[in-house]
Amino acid sequence: MKLSQRITHLTEGGNDGWDVFYRARQMISDGYAVTELTIGEHDIRTDASTLEAMDLSARQGHTGYAVVPGTDLLRDTVAARLQARTGVPTTRHNVLITPGGQSTLFSAHVAVCDPGDVGLYLDPYYATYPGTIRGGRSCGPINPDYCRRRVPAARRADGGRRRWRDFVAGQYAEQPHRLVYSRQTLEGIAEVCRRRDLWLISDEVYGTQVWEGEHISPRTLPGMVERTLVVGSMSKSHTMTESRCGWIVGPETVISHLINLATHTTYGGSGFIQDAASFALNAGNDLEEQVAEPFRRRRALAVGILAVQNTIGLVSAQGAMYLMLDIRATGFSGDGFANALLDTHAIAVMPGESFGSAAAGHIRVAMTIDDDRFATALSTICTFASDLAAHHPAVG
Hints:
alpha+beta; Aspartate Aminotransferase, domain 1; Aspartate Aminotransferase, domain 2; 2 domains; 4-stranded mixed sheet; 14 helices; 11 strands
């Protein structure tokens, strides 16, 4: 008996670069003190007022099955939020509530990709994007060489040219390279989507963490509301990572089919968590700014620390809770550097190779521990890189 290609090809036989993360977690489980700078897990927890709202809802009995599309209250809240922030008319019928952003991404690809279709995504990308696209397509893994051979280049709005594989399923602004695309670039992507009749899946979970430029949803651009699916969640904006509450916003027809998919898969989300999410979204910008402020502050700390060394390069850090650091001067790959750093200093970071070939020779550092520990860890990383560059320039 054999398993389906859909499941066996999710990671093309690999692990999508999570080895260092799992090794660090095992070390912690074994009693080692590890400074973990891997995943986007806040060092503050869900706000007490949100937890109180969650507790009240549960105690009042909202612990049974919630309606599959999501509660009317939360769907209305999400719709009103997006309409207020983008100016695009949005109602509950454009919204499906899901058990987290990752579930939403998978559902979106199931909705718009047939077997044999090619999903285009940015390199570097978030580590789960390729597997999500492979699973959503219900067929074998994507071959980047195939995409390069078969898909023509597309003209950018600035007059340059970019291969179609660079136009992605995902919000190109925040994850994982933290570059915030300009309106001009987004308009160029929108033009390609309109001209080639493409769907655009925009992962906007980091829309509240933009340090330079502005967050622009492609759904706001001319001709894009009917071909854009927006992914959002409570995880990053409101420190509700394990509450597993997200949403997808799109045309009513797509949402109606996605409700049918949810009926056959997740069967919706928890009602008391949705009530807490509604409460948190209605708490206003102050709560979201409170969540974002530590990362803004630590980004400034990092810029200062990196400015006084010359081994590590900082890739544009315009948004989100991470830094992408260029460590190629050490002679190490991102994977080799991350493993050596964990072995030598018990500091865990993500190898750049986890996010695609374009991020090879880089590491991603999550700014998710308190300021003093973060500054100490980053300084240690810089010293470690400097020592490697001086003594092991040819190691890979």
